[in-house]
Amino acid sequence: MKTTIALLAAGAMIVSSTALGSHEERDYGGTYRGIYWSGHAKGVSLEKSKKRIETVLTLDRDGTILDAEVDFLVLKKGKWIARNDSEASVSVDFSADPGAATVGTHYKKGRSMFDIKTNDMMGFYAVAVDEDGTVALAIVDAVIRYQLEAKFEPGYNYHSKVKELTINEELIPTKRTSKSGLVKVKDWSEVEGENLYSLHPYNHVIKDRGALKGIDEDSNIMEMLTALGVEFKDGVPQKMEVRYGFHSNGGWEGNYDDLEEYLIGKDAKDVRSLIDWSSKKYSRSIDDNNYFGLDSTAGATRTAQDSVDGIGGSTVRMSRENTSYMLALVEAGIIDEKDVIKGRF
């Protein structure tokens, strides 16, 4: 593996800065930007890309990170918008019954009770209670990237365990929220009998952080819904307009907030990457051109992710964010272009 190959060729990636001092004097004071975009490995230019990660670092003269900002930008209708914007518009049709999406080669979305418009579906949830006590729940699983829905009608036994909400039976996968799920389900029989918590080991983050902290598969459904904002009186859910939010680490916004918090106050000269590339499970996936995750090797991984134990305080896959961060360090004069690992994007 060549880890010293030059990264930039005629503007292959973009870094810019407003430096306050001279690199020769080792004055790192300034604001530095690193940009990395989708399709880079295929030769797509920034001008023709539709997604990009931007990291902006503000350093003092000694290299301490005074401020950090990470944004995931998506091109929609000619405008770059932040994917990590948590604003949403949500409405519910209680007359609808959720129906499963068709997975496999010919994907087709199913029938949903919810109309959700938002840029950020990572860890998203929404819940509402109708006048007759019917509860509509939607919750996105970040591993398979599907919106899962349950409809609890009057008389439902809310003392039932959360683990009884099995996928494609009581908890219906109505639509895919992203094609880039860590686990790509080809047939719903693959997850038969699984619940939200047992789908994948990484899902322990659901009970460890955020809105559902402390709720696990052995909790009852009343406890879960209460954690999401539903009020019960004598065991009956009370009417509630739709309420939404993010479980686990708080969606893309929450993950990036944690990443920024992790970086501020650190010496950038010591944090030269967000990922420890010496780990064999990562290093084996770096090719001769310093691209990570394009090809998988036995014992290697195509994604840099470590669940709640996280990378830089975050729980999402971080190789592309790491590239953006490293490019900002290049512009700051802390690392060389040849040292940048180009993440999977």
Give the SSE string: EEEEEEEEEEEHHEEEHHH
Radius of gyration over alpha carbons? Answer: 22 Å
Strand order of the largest sheet: 1-2-3-4-5
Number of domains: 2
Strand content: 15-25%
User: What low-confidence regions span 5 or more consecutive residues with pLDDT below 50?
Assistant: 1-12, 17-23, 294-317
Mean pLDDT: 81
**How can the largest sheet be summarized?**
5 strands, antiparallel
Distance between the termini: 20 Å
Q: Helix/strand-derived class? A: alpha+beta
So how many helices? 5
Helical content (DSSP H or I, runs of 4+): 10-25%
Shape descriptor: elongated
Total number of beta strands: 14
Give an account of the 3D structure.
- The protein has 345 residues and is of the alpha+beta class.
- It folds into 2 domains: 14-83 and 251-339, no CATH class; 90-246, no CATH class.
- The protein has 5 helices and 14 strands.
- The strands form 4 sheets. It has a 5-stranded antiparallel sheet with strand order 1-2-3-4-5. A 5-stranded antiparallel sheet has the order 11-10-9-8-14, with no helix packed on it.
- A hairpin with a 5-residue loop joins β8 (124-129) and β9 (135-141).
- The chain is elongated.
- The two termini are 20 Å apart.
- Residues 1-12, 17-23 and 294-317 have low confidence and may be disordered.
